[in-house]
Amino acid sequence: MTPAPVPPRPHAPGVRASLALLVLACVLPVAVVAAMLIADFYHRERAQLIDGTVARARAIIAATDRDIESTQLALQILSTSYLLRNQDLAGFHQRATGLVGQLGADSIVLLDTDGTLLLSTRRPYGAPLARLGRAPLLQRILAGGRPGVSDLFTGPLNGKPIFSIGVPVRRDGAIVMTLNAIYTPEHLQHVLGEQQLPAQWRASILDTDGRVVTRSHELATYAGQQVSPALRRQLAGASESGLESRTLDGQDVYVVYSRSPRTGWTAVLGIPRAELTARLSSTLAWLVAATVAALAAGLGLAWLLGGRIARSVQALVAPARAVGAGGIPAIPPLHFREANQLGNALREAALSMQRARSGMRESEQQLALAANAAHLGIWTRELRSDTIWASDQWRALFGFGAHQPLTLDAMLAKVHPDDRAAVQRTLQDTLHGAPRYDMEYRLLPAGGGPRWIASHGSVEFDEQGRPLRVRGVSLDITARKQAELELQQKQKEVTHLARVAMLGELSGALAHELNQPLTAILSNAQAARRFLAQPEPDLPEVAEILIDIVAEDKRAGDIIQRLRRLFGKQDMPRQRLDARELADGVIRLVRNDLIQHGLSVRAELGDEPLAIQADPVQLQQVLINLLMNACDAQAAPPASDGVIVLRCARDGANALFSVIDHGAGIAPDLLPRIFDPFTTTKARGMGLGLSICRSIATAHQGTLWAHNNPDGGASFHLRLPLADAP
Amino acid sequence: MSGLVHLVDDQPAVRKALARLLGAAGFTVRAYAGAQDFLDALEDGAGGCLVLDLSMPGMDGLALQQALAARAPQLPIIFLTGHGDIDSGVRAMKLGAADFLTKPVDDARLIAAIEAALEQQRQLHSADAELADIRQRLATLTPRETEVLELLVEGLLNKQVAAALGTVEKTVKVHRARVMAKMQVRSPTALVRLVDRARRG
Q: Which residue in A has a C-alpha nearest to residue B101's C-alpha?
């Protein structure tokens, strides 16, 4: 039976697509992980950079503070000058002018507490000066008594943005004036320069009001400009922080600042955002490039390999088809070891198929030869189409020509009329589930006598279990049938001879049986003569004697009749008879023989009649045989009680005869074959008795078997179906 | 002509016919269906003769003969057999059967055999009576007289008897006279014959 073809999967992927998927599955996760690692590294590096930048901002503001403090220290020393204490302002002007260069200041001015400009090194002493009014720095100094620094403001004398560092001038503990050094924004530019910042970075210092005091780039343009209010607001928060912002010259930067607690000024560093993300971008670009390259290489390789695998597999399709067609395929060299192995396997399969085919052809030829030699007709009957194919041998057997169409009716017409119905019934049964049949029937060929045919058929079923076709063989068994009939005849003769021999053994006892009525008859007759010889004969007594004589004579006649039947060569027809009567008759025949052996029979016949359909002579033969065997068994070693039981009882739908003795029993090695012919324990026996008994039992649809009794001796049982059994 | 005949045969028809024949011949017939029936009915010292079938179920003729050897040894047995079984016949005769006849049996032969047996029985019976008489006389002797008798039968003289018994001759003479009187004999020779007869049984 061929397995059903596997339906192709609707979207079975190709080798190339599968390999491409594999490459993607390998490369992409690695790329994602790498990207995550890179992002993590970027964030760490950025945080590090920002931390470093905050430190630099702090350094810038610290340097600014130091610059301012050193200026304040210098101014405080100057404020204690004796020239000032002595009101020698001209001298002080000269002294201060000398100090301006040292301090790197624009100028030094002395202010009255109400903001009146007392002198300025920018003007010669005595030149008229502007009145400045109470500036915020002046007020802080007067209020706190400590030095301070102003925010950026426009200088009244030169009109440029400037800032002022001031210290109080005390006289007798009270603040009488303030001494101020004026600086231009350029002064503080060195603080930024000292930090050696990258060129792209923007650095500036803002005053408390968010104005640019100094700047690393384009100071002239932006000095004094106020940063955006948004940035100002953010700068007002923590003293140190970082944030995204935009510089005054419009650059996107990351801003880091640090505010001085002393001056309130703020150092601001702007790192161009491009610089911050440049490395990340470039690394990511590398990663993307590497991923793309890996994917390209992987997919390319997958394409190449997939192509080769597909070609290798496709290259085997044609050879596989060739194997199916029965050829020996040529296997092209392939790229893969496995494919080559498959190719070799295909080739081997093809070779073994070819061998099997040639073997099959040979066995077909042998079968045909054997069928011809055995005169075996082979036929096949397709039940669906009701067509019959038959071999030439079969056609010859049934008398059909080589091209004559075959039908069931034509075939049945050749069957002997007596067998036709049975053949038809058997053939019908194959349509209704009978898996096989064996039958024997007669053919009536056109010329010659009837031929016996043995036919064996076997039904093939489809997957649903419905009969599909019947195959079979038919064989001429006429010779065998004749031999069987002859054998049956021979068997009959043997059975008869065995019976005669058996009765010969019994003859002594039978003579005795006959002797009894003869004795009674003689004695009765002589008694009658004596009665009649008396002077007054007792006639009624004589009449009674004559009745007895007649009865005894009949009895003798019966015995002779029975014997004649048993000796008769013809078997009697099967007839309905009571098993118990049969057993009783047998006991009568053998009783004397048993008595002579010092034995007796106990008949256990029951009350219920047991009707069987049997040949009485043959059954008597069986029972006599069994009883005589029991007698021999029991007589050899003197038996305990010398009683043989003949039982006749109902056993389901059967009558069961049992002959039970208490002799030596059957030797265990003999037990399995006592019913075989020529098995005997007797010195003079042929060993046919039990074998004939069994064949008689079988012919009566009965069984005959034996076993040893648990308490000694052996039992023989004969089971026959009751005549009225269903 | 008369006499008692016991008939044992298991076949009713045969038994009936034989009983009828022997009855017609003037015998008193007692018929039994089997050996055991006969043994059960047997009386001590029964007379007559036994007509016995050799082969019977249960106890057969020979077995019954053996049983009777102990219980009624004087009963003559005539065997009837259905077939001339020589072995059985020889055995039966050795065991003292009176006759052995085959069935069917002629009435003259059977009746002759029965009469011979009954005659033998009668003779046996009279011999038995004489012996019983002698034994009865012997039984009247005292132990001392019996001792004297035995020594006398041995052929000893009175003197020798006295020596053997350790007594005097005179006493022996008295015992001897008394023994002769009790045994009803006149001569020692007659005494010896009597004692010899008794001993042969």
A: A519
Pairing relationship of beta strands A240-246 and A643-651 according to DSSP bridges: unpaired
According to DSSP, the residues that pair with A253 across neighbouring strands are A245, A272
Comparing alpha-carbon positions, the chain A residue that sits nearest to B21 is A527
Higher pLDDT, A707 or B47: A707
List Cβ neighbours of A169 (8 Å cut-off, separation of 6 or more). Answer: A79, A84, A110, A175, A176, A177, A178, A179
DSSP H or E segment with residue B118: helix B107-139
Contacts of B14 in chain A (CB under 8 A): 516, 519-520, 523
Q: Cβ-count burial of A446 within 10 angstroms (0-12 exposed, 13-18 middle, 19+ buried)?
A: exposed
Q: Name residue A180's amino acid.
A: N
Q: What is the number of other CB atoms lying within 10 angstroms of the CB of residue A171?
A: 11
* Closest to A718 measured CA to CA, from A573, A628, A619: A619
Q: 3-class DSSP state for residue B54?
A: coil
pLDDT tens profile A213-263: 888 888 778 888 888 888 888 888 888 888 888 877 777 888 888 888 888
Instruction: Express each pLDDT in A595-633 by its tens digit.
Output: 777 778 888 888 888 899 888 888 888 888 888 888 877
Looking at residue A725, its amino acid is A
Nearest Cα neighbor of B7 from A535, A174, A523 is: A523
| Chain B residues touching A545 at Cβ < 8 A | 17, 20
For the record, the structure tokens of A281 come out as 């971008």
pLDDT at residue A385 greater than cutoff 70:
yes
Q: What is the ipTM of this complex?
A: 0.71
CB contact under 8 A, A520 and B24: no
Mean pLDDT computed over B144-172: 87
CB atoms within 10 A of CB A183: 25
Which of B33 and A601 is assigned the larger pLDDT? Answer: B33
Q: Name the band, by pLDDT with cuts 50, 70 and 90, for residue A208.
A: confident
A726 pLDDT above the threshold of 60: no
Please tell me the distance from the alpha carbon of residue B85 to that of residue B102, in angstroms, as a whole number: 9
